[in-house]
Amino acid sequence: MEHKSSLAFGEFRYMERRNRGLWTVAAAISLAACGSAEVGDADAATADEAFVRMINVETHTIATEQFVEEIKLTAVATANQDVSIQAEESGVIRELFVERGDHVATGAPIAKIDDRVLGAQVDQARAAADLASETWDRRRRLWEDDRVGSELAYLEAKYAAEQSAATLASLEERLARTLVRAPFEGVVDERPVDVGTMVGPGETVARIVDLDPIKVLAGVPERYSSDVKVGAEAVMSFQALGGETHSAPVRYVGATVNPRNRTFPIEVRVPNPDGSIKPEMVAEMAVTRQTVQDAIVVPQDALVRVEEGYVVFVVGQDENGEPVAPAREVTLGPTRRNLVVIDSGVEVGEELIVVGQKSVADGDRVNIVGG
Fold it and tell me: Which terminal Cβ of the chain has fewer Cβ within 10 Å, N or C?
């Protein structure tokens, strides 16, 4: 029994020593693992400290130039003259001299109205006028030279001759109006009558339009009433003609404001020798509002919107002489298309970041790749 007890006690001591060895190995492994984690964290912190944010950018050297501020408007082309030619006498159209699309000169015949009745009346009036004139001439000589007759007969003959002459002139004018003529040079755009059509005074015989020059009209918002003057430069772009542009001075500025849309009219005349600009074509018009000399002009894309307004990024240097991008708050002036004037915030000669500015934060390191 004592031998068995000694054996059991020995086995117990062996197991205790074995377990202690296992715990020691486990503790060593645990300490080694903790040490490795601490070393890894230290290496990561060192790597973070070594990492520097750098952005590739393109720059533009800030300089001054003349800047023209424009007012953008929508304009419509209209004919220089657009007139419906109307008959002044009644009768049947006996002859037509033009077709639609014909170019006519000033005074060119358009149509002939039957003039037979008026022609006979003119002949009758001419005979009466000749008789009255002869009677007056004889009465005048008898009264003035020989004092034969009465003063009343003398005056009656005088006024009868004048009345007959006036009647003849009136009928001759009416006879002349039976030939309808073009009042100005232009193109026959409409001709609603044919030979045999009965017309009366006021009925349209033809419509003539003058397209050279052509007028371009636009409405300017009333807030620009003090800025737009006669002679201001206007540039028009016709998208229907592939963006064809024309430049001309403002010829007319309206004196009143339209109460419906709060605009006042302006008019520009554009040469149109080939007739390519048609009435009612729409154009984009830009009218010069003001000219700024020695302005700092930058692309609007260079601006970055912030809570307080706008900033731009320029290229500077840090304490180590490395290029960085400090932010500058700027005050903006007038704009035109994709350009804007900067009144304050940057200086001439500085390098303005124009590509990559959306990715830059204040003070970031930058790498200039173009300019």
Answer: N
Class of domain 54-65+294-370: mainly beta
Tokens of 157: 């003959």
- The pTM of the full predicted model, rounded to 2 decimals, is 0.63
Overall fold of domain 71-80+210-292:
Elongation Factor Tu (Ef-tu); domain 3 (2.40.30)
Cα–Cα dist 162/133, whole Å:
8
CA pair distance 93, 108, nearest whole angstrom? 17
Q: Which residues pair with residue 56 across a beta bridge?
A: 367
Domain boundaries, the chain: 1-51, 54-65+294-370, 71-80+210-292, 115-177
Residue 33, CB half-sphere, CA atoms under 13 Å: how many?
6
Helices 116-146/151-177 angle, 10° precision: 160
- What is the average pLDDT score of the chain? 84
